[in-house]
Design brief:
Blueprint lengths: L1 H13 L5 E4 L7 H16 L9 E2 L6 H14 L5 E4 L2 H13 L9 E3 L16 E4 L1 H16 L11 E4 L11
Parallel strand pairs: 1-2, 1-3, 3-4
Antiparallel strand pairs: 5-6
Helix pairs in contact: 1-2, 3-4
């Protein structure tokens, strides 16, 4: 989550985006979203930018409706932004809908990215740039850990890799 958040924000920065809104609950109730925010902040700082609290909007649930509401709240604040990082693809998709309703073009005016690479992400208009996690590998490792615990063997934590899936919603030239 930390690495994926950092990689995605670095990608947006590399695309020339500087005012990146972050939609997601960063409280202790959502540790995966908090980790993604930590990575986001690391990438900003590495680029010499300070995280702006005005660009962070809580989205307590990973739903399209929550992303839609969070983006509308951001627009109501009158804060300038040129990109949106949804802590889940569903949040990002809801944000894209709110941007369209507000007459803002994705990715021309606002780049939008998500996290998870759900199947719907590739069918969005434009297709959603996202962070892919290998959930199959994660499931296999989880089952392995449970079996080790049942055998009384020590279990260790393992960091699994993420991968950026670049699609048109971020403004990159790509086939998808």
């Amino acid at each position: 989550n930390v690495h994926g958040g950092e990689a995605m924000t670095a990608h947006l920065l590399g695309m020339g985006r500087r005012r990146i809104a972050f939609l997601g609950d960063i409280s202790e109730h959502c540790p995966e979203f908090s980790d993604r925010y930590l990575g986001h902040c690391r990438a900003l700082r590495a680029a010499g930018l300070a995280p702006d609290p005005a660009l962070q909007v809580d989205a307590a649930h990973s739903t399209e409706q929550m992303g839609h509401e969070a983006l509308r709240a951001l627009l109501a604040r009158g804060v300038d932004f040129d990109a949106v990082f949804g802590t889940s693809d569903l949040i990002a998709l809801g944000a894209m809908r709110a941007l369209a309703e507000a007459g803002l073009h994705v990715p021309g005016q606002v780049a939008v990215v998500g996290f998870d690479d759900i199947p719907m992400a590739s069918f969005a208009n434009p297709p959603l740039t996202t962070v892919m996690q290998d959930t199959r590998l994660a499931g296999e490792r989880l089952v392995g850990c449970v079996l080790e615990q049942l055998r009384g063997e020590p279990v260790s934590s393992e960091m699994l890799p993420t991968r950026l899936v670049i699609r048109r919603s971020c403004g990159a030239s790509c086939p998808a």
